[in-house]
Amino acid sequence: MPFRDERSATVEALASGRVGRGMDAAALATGNESTRRRTDTYRPEEAPMTRIVDLSMTVEECDSAPFAKEELYFKLRPIVRWEDKGFVSNMVEMTVHAGTHIDSPHHFFRDKPSVEQLPLDALMGEALVLDLTFKGTANSRITPDDLDRAERALDAKGIQIPPGGILFLRTDWPKGHKTTDPAWWNESPCLTKASAEWLVARKPRVVGFDFAQEEKGVDYQHADEILTSGMRVHRTILPNVTCQIENLVNLDQVPSKVRVIALPAKWRSESAPARVVGFVDE
Fold first, then answer.
1. How much is the pTM?
2. How far apart are CA 207 and CA 77, in angstroms?
3. How far apart are the first and last CA of the chain?
4. In the chain, where does the domain assigned CATH 3.50.30.50 lie?
5. Which end of the chain has less neighbouring CB within 10 Å, N or C?
6. What are the DSSP E strand ranges found in 124-220?
7. What are φ and ψ of residue 155, in 5° steps?
8. Which residues, including other chains, have CB under 8 Å from residue 51's CB and lie 6 or more apart?
9. Pairing, β 190-191 against β 141-142
C-alpha cells in the first residue's frame, strides 16, 4: 500500500544513497528531530508516494533439495508446541541456498569474502532490470545476442548500464513455478558462459536473477547433477562482483530502473537467505 511518512522518507533515502550526502544516518535511524534539523537537507514532505515491492520468495517446508536430494531444503523442527506451552518455537534445518539468497564470492573462491563480510552499501541503490521475458520459456539458453537485445531496449528508454551498478535479469520464470519443484531447475532458462562474460564486461557490482542461471549442457542438465558440474557461470561471475542474488521474484512489478535494498542474514557462510525489496515512486 502506498505510504508517505517519516519512515518512508528514511527508507527512500537509504535506498537512493542520500545518506552520507548531507544526511546523518544516526539521526535517520533514531528519528531525532533536533539532530535531523541540523544535518538533514532532505525533508519527508519531499518524498513521493512509494510502493514497496517484495522481490523475495516465500520459503516453505520441503524435505528434499532439488539439487541435493539427500539434503533438506527447509524443514522446521518444533522445540515448543502451541498445545504444550501456549506458544511456539522452532529450529530449522535448511540449505543456505533456499529461496531468495545471496551468494558471496567465497561460494567458489576460498580467499574471497563470505556473506558476513559483504559491504552493505553495495547492497542498496538503483538497480536496472534487463527484460529477457522473450527467453522466459522452458529450456531457453540466454546468449550474448539476447543480452544485447535487452540492453538496446534499455537504451531506447534513455537508460545505459553504468559500471559499478546493480543489474537484475528478468525472465518471469517464477510465475507458475516453485523452486522446490525439480522442474523449476530442470527446465529453467539459463545463461551460457559467454553471456556470463557479457555481464562481467559491464562491470556490475551486483547481479540478480529470477531463474536458475547456471549453464546446462555437457555436464549438467538436471538439478541433481549441478553439484558435480563445472558451474561455469558461477565461476565466471562471482570473482568479478560483490555478490549475486538468486531466485528473485516479481520483477514484472518494478520499472526498468528501481531503488532496491537486498540484505542477507549475517551468517559466516558462503551464502545466506536475503529479503530483497524494491521501492517504486507513484
1. 0.81
2. 34
3. 11
4. 96-281
5. N
6. 124-131, 141-142, 166-170, 190-191, 206-209
7. -55, -40
8. 1, 2, 279, 280, 282
9. parallel
d(CA 205, CA 276): 16
Rounded Cα distance, 140 and 30, in Å: 48
Residue (of 141, 130, 110) closest to 207 by Cα position: 130
pLDDT digits over 150-184, tens only? 999 999 999 999 999 999 999 999 998 777 777 88
| Strand-pair category, 190-191 with 243-246 | unpaired
Residue 97 pLDDT grade (very low, low, confident, very high; cuts 50, 70, 90): confident
What CATH number was assigned to the domain covering residues 96-281?
Answer: 3.50.30.50
Place of cell 530502473: 257
The CA distance from 247 to 242, in Å, is: 17
Question: In this structure, are residues 67 and 224 in contact, taking their beta carbons and an 8 Å threshold?
Answer: yes
Res 183: pLDDT:
82
Q: In this structure, which amino acid lies at residue 20?
A: G
C-alpha cell at 90: 522452532
Mean pLDDT (whole number) for 99-109: 94
